[in-house]
């Protein structure tokens, strides 16, 4: 009789654990994803910053209305399909395309002069945030994704390398040129220290 009780107890415990995981797993999806794991196989493994870069590099008025939609809360992660130019978009391919066409994205014009001295190829994509219809929301999303609330904000292959002061410090330390080269950006310009 006691072995039956043990089996019943084990069985009920397993059922309880399975139900718990099934019912409450969605609650922990964002925590799991923040650790670098995907809890759902159909979710893209591309960082949201690439969704934002994809959106802002499209030169259309329609793209400036995506972040202003009532369904988008820029203080929270935005679904990648909101950034997508079309349904069924392959984010892995889009990330590759963006890294090839726009490895350097500058939000604001302030660092443009220094970057021009490097004669980068491909040239930096300059996003004039304040001239966009979605400027307020774009600033919130960019702050959330990069941890930087000041502008300019320079993105190198999906990672923020900082603002104007940071880029000038990297330049003065002779590190900026190497960062560009390591990221696969062709540096053609001569610059003076």
Automatic annotation (TrEMBL):
<dbReference type="Pfam" id="PF00462">
    <property type="entry name" value="Glutaredoxin"/>
</dbReference>
<protein>
    <recommendedName>
        <fullName>Glutaredoxin domain-containing protein</fullName>
    </recommendedName>
</protein>
<dbReference type="GO" id="GO:0000324">
    <property type="term" value="C:fungal-type vacuole"/>
</dbReference>
<dbReference type="InterPro" id="IPR036249">
    <property type="entry name" value="Thioredoxin-like_sf"/>
</dbReference>
<dbReference type="GO" id="GO:0005796">
    <property type="term" value="C:Golgi lumen"/>
</dbReference>
<dbReference type="GO" id="GO:0005801">
    <property type="term" value="C:cis-Golgi network"/>
</dbReference>
<dbReference type="InterPro" id="IPR014025">
    <property type="entry name" value="Glutaredoxin_subgr"/>
</dbReference>
<dbReference type="InterPro" id="IPR002109">
    <property type="entry name" value="Glutaredoxin"/>
</dbReference>
<feature type="domain" description="Glutaredoxin">
    <location>
        <begin position="107"/>
        <end position="161"/>
    </location>
</feature>
<dbReference type="GO" id="GO:0034599">
    <property type="term" value="P:cellular response to oxidative stress"/>
</dbReference>
<dbReference type="GO" id="GO:0015038">
    <property type="term" value="F:glutathione disulfide oxidoreductase activity"/>
</dbReference>
